[in-house]
Amino acid sequence: MSGHSNWPEWIYVTVVIALMAWVGAEAWEAERLVEHVPEDAKTIIVTGQQWFWTFEHEDGTKEIGELHVEVGKAYKFEVVSKDVNHSFNIHDYVVLMDAIPGRVNTVWFAPDKVGEHDIQCREYCGLIHYNMRGKLYVEEPSH
Amino acid sequence: MTLELQKPRPIWQIMFSTHHTDVGLLYLISSLTFLFLGGSLALAIRAELFLPGSQIIADSMTFNRIFTVHGTTLIFLFIIPFASAVGNYYVPIMVRYKDMAYPKLNAIAFWMIPPAGVLIWLGFADFTWYATPPYSIISAPGPAADMWIFGLKILGISSVLGALNFVVTILKCKHPDMSIGQIPLLAWSFLSSSLIIIVAIPTFAAALLMLLTDRLGVSGFFNPAMGGDPIAYAHLFWFTFHPEVYVLVIPAIGMMYEIIPRFSRKPIYSYNSGIFAFVMLSLVGFSSWAHHMYATGMSFTEKTVFMVGTLAAVPASAMHVFNFVATMWNARIRFSTPMMWAVGGIALFFSAGAGGVVNSAMPLDFTTHDTYWVVGHFHLFVMGTIAFGSLGFLYYMFPYVTGRLYNETLGKIHFILAFIGTVLVFFTQHILGLYGMPRRIYDYPPIPEWIAMNQIASIGAMIIGTSMVIFLANMIYSAGKGKLADTDDPFGLGGKYYYPFEAKNPSH
Ligand code: HEM
Ligand SMILES: [Cu+2]
Ligand SMILES: [Cu+2]
């Protein structure tokens, strides 16, 4: 409609832009913090392949389908794939990183409670994608 | 306004015609056929996921093929051709030209769709609607995968031909008395979405060829074993398909621009803001593609850039919502069936966008990415907004196309059931995503929350299915036996004034 003043729409658009700027700024700040890997994080190499996960600790020990870590320590995952794309996911700790052949992607976490959590694949990888699952065991430090 | 009220003609006269309303009718029939075919696959998926364990689908391979063909069918063989149907009927009339600019090309673009559909359905590929390598190169069984690739290739060409035709019709064939600032917003929506198609599709067309030669083993663009990079494909794919989501949604918004002022019996609140928002979406839509790739290992800077690009498109979407609400404000609204669909569609559009903002905020996306949340997010668009806008528009066109009225009560029942079903399925899927259920899985562990949410979603899907049966019966019965419509005012809005674009096509 021509000729009428459109101030309600201007106010509305300004509010939406401000809201988006706020969401963006908060997200930027949060992501900056989560991406900072602690110095003392131990490295675990996570290998995805059709259709299971293998974990290799710093001392060379390997686990298949199960991952044992100690509470209160920081771990850095180096996620790789032997065949197609997968996505390494511990939903309870918001750990998510694609395993892509030819690349090493890193993500870290520091479990704060003893317990058991599901590990799963979140990127479609074929026949048994639905059951490419594992278990995370967060345990008291051994001596 | 009369779209096509001729004496009934034998079907082959329509099939071999190049007249815009005939081609429109062909688009309409084929897109609705694929809506029902693709929809049946959705019901199979929901039935399978009703409980953990195998229900009605024998194995995961079949399940994977079903969701792949479901998505491919509804996006490429229902949504896009449905928009072309509406464009064919309306765009020439709205710019006051006798036909599309290139009628033969128009018919050719349509006739590419059935063979593509046949390839996709006979092949029944399993590599999801984005055919990601290296799975699609080294793991996906042929010939299904190859047939899918050829099918999509054909559909891409058809889209580009159709888009060129709309652009030329609008820009070159519009009546000299009309300026571009006078054509209805529905025509503007086709101009915007066609321009996006022309810019966006060639990238995917190239990626498809590279995928094919990779599968044949003669190249290794995306195959790490041959030095290629799967992430390159992801960029090419999403460079086409993020803009493509606006190709899907913009015509549906255009249809709402046609319905809402009419049934509010008021002019649109702001025509200029509608145009501005379309143009903004078409431009900014190109700055956000990698928001689909936050978890592929992108750097912090890359993620930030694409987050900003994504959030930048939100105000333009929000402007459409504002325009609709402001038009309905204080209006004498008549809630006939088309209006109910349009208003329901706007409500769902708004919720879908809100969920999209969550996906865009990079740390939050690690919770939602590749879970059922994302499935819920984009279905609130493709079903809640686009299918709702399209179905509403179909009811709106019905009297003009057939000369008869559909059954209003059944139309309303269809809407109410579909709305309830949509909320049950897709809001629930957002929650399911927060509980961590990955998408594209044939079976799931018996986690009580997952089971409960899946069951609600499956019941919702059955409600939508029921509503679609009612719809089909209503359309078929009313097309032949419905009450005769007064084509000057089929919805009883009280006068020609409310049909501003009835300007008779000079050559009709
Ligand atoms: C307010 C506007 C929107 C925002 C902020 C937004 C944001 C996003 C984001 C960030 C994702 C990636 C989620 C992930 O995979 O983790 C996504 C996925 C998706 N969006 Fe949107 N979106 C918006 C509008 C739309 C529209 C209008 C459509 C369709 C018509 C759409 C269709 C899709 C589809 C199909 C996917 C997922 C594709 C797939 O992974 O299969 N979105 N959206
Ligand atoms: Cu997987
Ligand atoms: Cu996108």
In short:
Chain A contains 1 helix and 10 strands, in the order αββββββββββ.
Descriptive account of the structure:
The complex is a heterodimer of chains A (143) and B (508). By secondary structure, chain A is an alpha+beta fold. Chain A has two domains: 1-36; 42-139, Sandwich (Immunoglobulin-like). Helix content of chain A is 20%, strand content 40%. Chain A has one helix and ten strands; from the N terminus they run H-E-E-E-E-E-E-E-E-E-E. Chain A has one helix at residues 7-34; strands at 42-49, 52-56, 62-64, 66-70, 75-81, 86-90, 95-99, 105-109, 115-121, 133-139. In chain A, the strands form two sheets. A five-stranded mixed sheet of chain A has the order 3-2-1-5-8, with no helix packed on it. Chain A starts with 6 loop residues before the first helix and ends with a strand. The model of chain A has no long low-confidence stretch (mean pLDDT 94). By secondary structure, chain B is an all-alpha fold. Chain B has one domain (21-502): Cytochrome C Oxidase, Chain A, CATH 1.20.210. Helices cover 70% and strands 0% of the residues of chain B. Chain B contains 17 helices and no strands. Chain B has helices spanning 11-15, 20-48, 60-94, 103-111, 113-123, 135-139, 144-173, 185-216, 230-264, 271-284, 300-311, 314-328, 337-360, 362-368, 372-402, 408-434, 448-481. In chain B, helix 4 packs antiparallel against helix 7 (144-173). Classes of the chains: A alpha+beta (143), B mainly alpha (508). At the A-B interface, helix 1, strand 7 and strand 9 of A face helix 3, helix 6, helix 11, helix 12 and helix 14 of B. The site of protoporphyrin IX containing FE (HEM) has 22 residues of chain B, from helix 9, helix 12, helix 13, helix 14 and helix 15.
Write the topology of this structure:
The complex is a heterodimer of chains A (143) and B (508).
Chain A: H1 7-34, E1 42-49, E2 52-56, E3 62-64, E4 66-70, E5 75-81, E6 86-90, E7 95-99, E8 105-109, E9 115-121, E10 133-139
Parallel strand pairs in A: 1-5, 4-10
Antiparallel strand pairs in A: 1-2, 2-3, 5-8, 6-7, 6-9, 9-10
Chain B: H1 11-15, H2 20-48, H3 60-94, H4 103-111, H5 113-123, H6 135-139, H7 144-173, H8 185-216, H9 230-264, H10 271-284, H11 300-311, H12 314-328, H13 337-360, H14 362-368, H15 372-402, H16 408-434, H17 448-481
